[in-house]
Amino acid sequence: MIIVNIRCAVCLLIVFLCVLISGCQQNARPYIDFRQKETHAAYNPVEASPKPLRIALASVLSPKETISHYRRIAQYISGRLGFPAVLVQRTTYEELNMLLANGEADVAFSSTGAYSAYRGMAETEILAMAEYQGTTLYLAYVIVPKTSPVEKLDDLRGKVFAFTDPLSYSGHMCIVDYLWQRREVPEKFFSRYIYTYNHDKSVWAVANNLADGASVDSMIYDYVAATKPEIAANVRIIATIGPAPTGPVVIRKNLSPELKAQLRMVFLDMDKDPQMRTALQGLLIDRFVPPQPELYEPLRRLYDRAGGLP
After folding, report:
1. Its domain of life (predicted)?
2. Could you tell me which residues are beta bridge partners of residue 160?
3. Omega into 243 within 30° of 0, i.e. cis?
4. What's the whole-model pTM score?
5. Any idea what the CATH number is for the domain that residue 118 is in?
């Protein structure tokens, strides 16, 4: 009887162990039932942020005098368009034109000469022109030190001359054209010439007798006379050349029609914002007006003739 009970106990123990081992094996070897459907939260991709509008510039005034105004304009444009706008600053007009040619700028504050010289593969068009003191035209002033005996441009033969930028109209090409008409070139007419890359720096160079003469934008000269009269007091104007159209705002031609229309409205309305008038005045702009591309055609022919291309 005792043996039978022992046998029953052993059998029960074996059954218990088998059940226990079977349960452990099921937990130790998980598997995926591909017949079961698994639910996921719906994927809702976030729309990519729009690329910032790239605004290029190469200032005709010293950068420290103007960069805060350009930043204010970029902020204003960004606010009106509803997406970011960034400034891309360069030192020379050729560098500015290269940005446009390489498609690395959408909008540019160009100069008269930079626009007239531009022949990049990426086409551009004028969005607006700057108006200052009721006109979109300005002159080139030829200046000399106040105590200089020079009375006319021809008297500068053999002297040191200050140009602003190789592509500048009022700061370089107008003189190149003047000499070309007389079968002269700067390399032979002047003893030496330098580039200052800003009109106000050219005025400073002449006022401090670092150059015997310079040609500068009349609007910049008037600005220097108003803000730094002690410098302007040391120079004289001996000749004027021009007039020429002011530097335009240009855009990539392949921008969407909708964006072009928005930008045109932004620029043409900018002076109506009281907070923007200070920024515009700091850049010698009263307001932006619709462009007159035909005004630049004589200058484009001048640049073609002189080979003043980037």
Report:
1. Bacteria
2. 192
3. yes
4. 0.81
5. 3.40.190.10
